[in-house]
Give the backbone structure.
Amino acid sequence: MNSKSINESNLISRDLSWINFNYRVLDQVRSKSRGVLDKLKFLSIVASNFDEFFEIRVGSLYNYIDNNKTRIDYSGMREKPFREYLLDQSKTFFNDYNRCFSDEVISTLKKKDIIIGEVNDLDEEGRKRIKKYFKKTIFPMLTPMVFDDLHSFPILMNKVLIFGVVTKNKASSNKKKISFIQVPINLPRFFEYRIQDKMFFIPIEKIISKYISKFFRSITIESVSLFRIIRNGDFTLEESEDIEINFLEELKQKLKDRKFSRVVRLEVSNSFDDYLLKSLKERFKLDNYNIMKLPIDSIIDFTSLKQIYEFEEFSDFFSEYPNPIQSFDMEGSSNKNIFEILSEKDVFLHHPYNSFDPVIRLLNEAADDPNVLSIKITLYRTAKNSRVIDALLKAAENGKHVSVLFEVKARFDEENNLKNGYQLEKAGCYVIYGIGSLKTHTKLLLIVRREGKKVKNYAHMGTGNYNETTSRLYTDLSLMTSDQNYTKDALEFFNVITGHSVPEDYENLITAPIYMRDKILDLIEKEISNSKSGIDSKICIKINSLQDKKVINKLYEASNSGVKICLIVRGICCLRPGRKNLSENIEVISVVGDYLEHSRIYYFHNSGDPIIYSGSADVMIRSFKRRIESLFKINEDFIKKQAITILNYNLRDNCNSYILKEEGNYVKKGLISGEKFDLFKEFYNLKKNNLEGSIIL
């Protein structure tokens, strides 16, 4: 099936949409306004995203193919022809971002006297140091593993640099053998060396290549080739009756199994030995679609560029972000503790423009406050040295009842979450490791506090993880409140997800996996009804991903009923906008820039009395059916204005926005008239009296 046939579908392929998203991230590398280290950072993000795409999305596709199961993509293609088309598009993307590095980034680095070079680029002293470094550090750590008639094929690790060395024994010159040398991940990727004003970074593979003969004495080396494999990282866990034992043991086993899972991509150096390539293809059951060859001037694995852009001496090269501004809701509250503030009013935070510190402060004050009785929290991803974990540990040590729902199935954070979970258990916290086959993705915190003879509840609801590191990089929303209309719902929701309660309808929460999709469909239907009655009707939804077919079809129905719809979708979007008699009233934009857009806002015009929700959920099948999610209603007028202003700023932006065209491609939104409007800068200048009460659709 060709691209013409794909374009005829009323839906856009999720996986092809993902590739388009990463082209928008790659634009950040190509941008002339980006500094050299910012370019490296974004290139590293592109490469990391690409690896994860193969581990999960391509891995998932192979789960169908290898098990002879049927899968029909949104493009209408069956699993096998879609594999070929997808891998062909992936290869094009791989070539594009590698060429970007070779043609643009390297020259930009050189202008700043930063050289990713060869061993021979160094002076005599530098070459001596490299020789010593190889002899004392690298050589003892490397282990050649031969594969021949007497030795089985070794286990090759996922996402590490691997040398494949083809050799011949001098006594039997026709007999070829293959040896593998895997580069340990605890070795620095680059050797650092300064010559006057120039800073050299020599890739470790260049050093090993120079001295690789040291491993093969009295043996003829036919070829030395460098490669890297990406394995299938997609797995599902079976629901277990004994959640505490069977589930955790199964998870541990699945994490071990990732080391041996199917290879889905083979990334090879430019001059790669044909004999070795043929052997690897046979071993891993790959064809040419899975093989990605680097340009001659590129390097394997751009995620390792982190060593360069985080180099201490380069800190001045990075773009500086402004300091966070104070939340409008916390003005004039410097002398009050957090419980006093929340007793008077709700607090709305827009991260990173508003610091995440008030959320940390809420946890720390709760941990120390003798009147606090209990803390309940859901955790999905936490920071490495997490202040959130520290606060919970302190609370437990101070005798609080601490309940933590730790989602150990958070992809690629499983081991870290297990480790943190055990630490919390040892401190006396009640830890629940996920809810069967469902992922707990909701962001929810509940604090129970004794106040006089009464007990009062405080809650935090958000769109982002309880992660102080990503809160500086992702745009997210937080609502902190003591309003019983929220806290009552939060308490009930905790009883549902940790116990065996079946809730009645919540007052201010929409939850998944039971109610969420139906509630969203009802809200869209209300706008359809209003439009048919001649009432002004609008929908504006800001999310990370849009894939659920039922909601997409309902949005198509709304468009055909005259409802004006704007969707702000950062990443995957399977809805096709602007198609005649289908989606003429739908516009889709994507914002990609300084921060990762992660906040979610659902706006329904509701005859001029807007209904607005925010929370953890995207419009995805997994969000509605396979995750525990929540959206909280925004009730207070002043906070509504803040949410509407966020949407309007996204709609006004003409520096970081892309418009999705009917054929599935994105075009950069340019200046039509007026001045530049960069939302990532404008939020720092936002004043209380500039907040907006109506959407600009």
